[in-house]
Amino acid sequence: MKFGKVDHPELIDFTIPKDHPDTQILLSGRPKNKKTNVYVGCAKWNRQDLKNFYPRGTKDELVYYSSQFNSIELNATFYRIFPAEQYQKWYDKTPEGFKFFPKMTNEVSHLRRLNDKVYEIADRYLEVTSLLKEKLGTIFLQMHNNFNPKNWDRVVQFVEYWPKEFPLAMEFRHTDWFTDEKVSQELYHLLEENGIANVLVDTAGRRDLMHMRLTNNEAFIRYVGANHASDYPRLEDWITRLLAWKQMGLENIHFFVHQNLELESPLLSAHFIKKLNEQMGCNLTIPSTLVKTKPNTLF
């Protein structure tokens, strides 16, 4: 993921901001002793992107990937709606407990920008995506960088149309969604009232997207490493924050690791999972081909 890339990441303050005050209010009413569902994954399983991740002789990348991770942020569905047979194959190749978190097709978000023509497209998308059955996680809708609050009515109409049986997360990138307090409060209220997750994006060049406002009992986090030594302490800071949210009552953690150069995403993920297991009592598989890799050998 090139979004938010900077030439000198060492100059960026990666400190995680304080929680939005309404995040604590949202979580405070939740039961404290419920199990926390934790899913960690990469954005894709392509061998070319995840260089050196697959053992020599690997015949099926998804089969191997899903033996090492419990989820995938499925970016491929952003570019086209696949035929039904493809979803069935993905379902059949992955083990029980694995989940897909597919990206909504760009026909809805970028090409038609939530206009009145998107509903038939969204219905087609959901018809085939639903074939993932219990392996379907949260679908996420990422809006274009220049989709701004002038399109508020389109957002409201889409949110009200969206069938509630499909968990949804939304990612807004235009700065005005967050820098104008009246706009941001209206957006957060709309998402919260409709049970939609507000995506957090942790990337070097867009720190304004770290609004730290949860709108349902789900932390949907897209972490973008900078291919820099700071990537590892940044991940550990996230564990501290997620642990605090868990203690407040957070039930669902969906954390997806990107890199400007994706080949290092599994390495970061392995480090993150290992620390999660240690500090949060999780029992996630640490990708086996990466266990012996020391993070500081990357840089």
Task: Characterise the protein shown here.
The protein is an alpha/beta fold and 299 residues long. The protein has one domain: Protein of unknown function UPF0759 (TIM Barrel). It has helices at 21-28, 61-68, 84-93, 106-111, 118-129, 152-161, 176-179, 181-193, 231-248, 265-280, and strands spanning 37-42, 71-74, 99-102, 139-142, 168-171, 197-198, 200-202, 218-225, 252-259. A six-stranded parallel beta sheet has the order 3-2-1-9-8-7. Strands 4-5-6 form a three-stranded parallel beta sheet. Strand 4, helix 6 (152-161) and strand 5 (168-171) form a beta-alpha-beta unit. Helix 9 (231-248) runs parallel beside helix 10. The chain is globular. The two termini are 19 Å apart. Residues 291-299 have low confidence and may be disordered.
Topology of helices and strands:
Layout: H1 21-28, E1 37-42, H2 61-68, E2 71-74, H3 84-93, E3 99-102, H4 106-111, H5 118-129, E4 139-142, H6 152-161, E5 168-171, H7 176-179, H8 181-193, E6 197-198, E7 200-202, E8 218-225, H9 231-248, E9 252-259, H10 265-280
Helix pairs in contact: 9-10
